[in-house]
Design goal:
Blueprint lengths: L4 H4 L5 E2 L7 H10 L10 H14 L3 E3 L2 E2 L2 E3 L7 E11 L8 E9 L4 H15 L2 H9 L3 H7 L3
Parallel strand pairs: 1-5, 3-6, 4-6
Antiparallel strand pairs: 2-3, 5-6
Helix pairs in contact: 2-3
Length: 149
């Protein structure tokens, strides 16, 4: 596992203006960011795993943040895509819109690395100042810089 969340992020896997405001559509938009990532073997299978996981248990953590994730062997290593929506995305399990989506795909065998990733993200987003700075970032590079230790 990379040493920090910012090491997992790539600028081309961050969208600061999600177009789709539905849960499945926003997840598809984020999955498509992995189109050039060789660690993702099957975009459709990853999308299906994320949607199935979301139907089983909500990944909305409050404060306008969600961590949709799937443990699946269609990824060779942990991958992270981020979407931001000023208008908000409607997740079926939440009455409140989600503005920051941190989507994680992880191989089934990397349970501990996955837990470290989720824990690190949770520590960042519980800080309202950090969330505000993430919402204000003008570029993917600025977004990543907010998450740099």
């Amino acid at each position: 596992m990379p040493s920090s969340i910012s090491d997992l992020l790539q600028e081309d896997q961050i969208t600061l203006d999600l177009r789709d405001q539905t849960q499945s559509g926003a997840l598809r938009e984020l999955v498509d960011l992995f189109g050039n990532n060789p660690a993702v073997k099957d975009l459709n299978a990853l999308h299906e795993a994320l949607v199935a996981r979301e139907k089983a248990t909500s990944t909305v953590v409050g404060n306008g943040v969600a961590f949709p994730h799937a443990r699946t062997d269609v990824v060779d290593k942990i991958v992270l895509a981020v979407g931001r929506s000023a208008a908000g995305v409607k997740f079926e399990s939440s009455p409140d819109p989600v503005h920051l989506i941190f989507m994680i795909g992880t191989p089934k065998a990397q349970i501990s690395d996955y837990l470290v990733c989720i824990g690190s993200l949770a520590r960042f987003v519980k800080d309202k100042e950090v969330c505000a700075r993430l919402m204000e970032a003008k570029t993917p590079a600025e977004f990543i810089a907010v998450l740099r230790p």
